[in-house]
Amino acid sequence: MSELDPMEMRKISNRVAPSLEMEDVIVSMLGLDTIKCPQCRKRFDSVEEMEDHRKVHMTTYFCDECHKSFTTQGGYWKHMKTHTDERSFVCNICNKSFTQQANLQRHQLVHTGQKPYQCTICQKSFSQNANAQKHMLLHTGKKPFRCGVCDKAFAQQANLQKHERIHTGDKPYTCHICNKNYTQLANMQKHLIVHSKIGAKHSNFQIHKGHHCATRC
Q1: Given Cys at both, which of 18, 104, 145, 187 links 154, Cβ 3.0 to 4.6 Å?
Q2: How many helices and strands in the chain, by DSSP H and E?
Q3: Domain C2H2-type spans what residues (predicted)?
Q4: How many domains, in total, are found in the chain?
């Protein structure tokens, strides 16, 4: 087998992403005198350039609010928005705002109707990956969320939180018409139907009453 000339080897190294061992072989055959960063494998022509580059790995940005640290300034500023509540990314459909663009993009799936995350068992689709993961627990039969009072277990944390209101007596959902409180949102929504029916009957009564008045007059 004939040996490849350095120019051909350089073309190969530019076309493929070699393994660690193959990369070293190619660099050696090309006769390149380079210095490799021990943390990210990036190569430099001199020790000075490599040491200057390593500052990227050593630089740390600390959050004064929660003491979380970041290696990049971009990651640090993105995190800081969670404390300042700066919401510069706004949905052009409903005007809901978000601190990060990724969160806005996930939200917009609600409007587009796209559901890119699919259950591999029943093929049910979801707009959010987190919801798909929660759904998958229903198929596994796992119930990792357990009530600390009655030991009842649930597949999803949200269902556990709903259940715990039975023990705490917490009723966070309030009817805006009669101020009656409910532990579950679904129960309050059912209750609101009662008001809508009463309102419809009252409206029909007024129309009927007005009709008789007009007839007599």
Answers
A1: 145
A2: 9, 12
A3: 35-57, 61-88, 89-116, 117-144, 145-172, 173-196
A4: 2
Rounded to an integer, what distance in angstroms lies between the CA atom of residue 3 and that of residue 159? 67
pTM score, whole prediction: 0.39
Q: Tell whether 131 is covered by a domain.
A: no
206: tokens are 């007024």
Q: Are 114 and 127 in contact (CB under 8 A)?
A: yes
Given 63, 83, 103, the domain boundary residue is 83
Per the CB < 8 A criterion, the answer to whether 183 and 171 are in contact is yes
On whether the CB atoms of residues 177 and 192 are closer than 8 A, the answer is: yes
Strands (E), the chain: 35-36, 43-44, 61-62, 69-70, 89-90, 97-98, 117-118, 125-126, 145-146, 153-154, 173-174, 181-182
Tokens describing residue 107: 């939200």
3-class state of residue 211 by DSSP: helix
pLDDT at residue 147, rounded to an integer? 92
Tokens (6 digits) for 123? 């093929």
Sign of CA dihedral 168, 172, 175, 179: positive
Domain that holds residue 175: 147-197
Where b means 16+ CB within 10 Å and e means fewer, 69-90 reads: ebeeeeebeebbeeeeeeeebe
CA atoms within 13 A on the CB side of 197: 6
What's the CATH code of the domain at 79? 3.30.160
Give a yes or no: residue 124 inside a domain: no
Greater confidence (18 vs 41) lies with 41
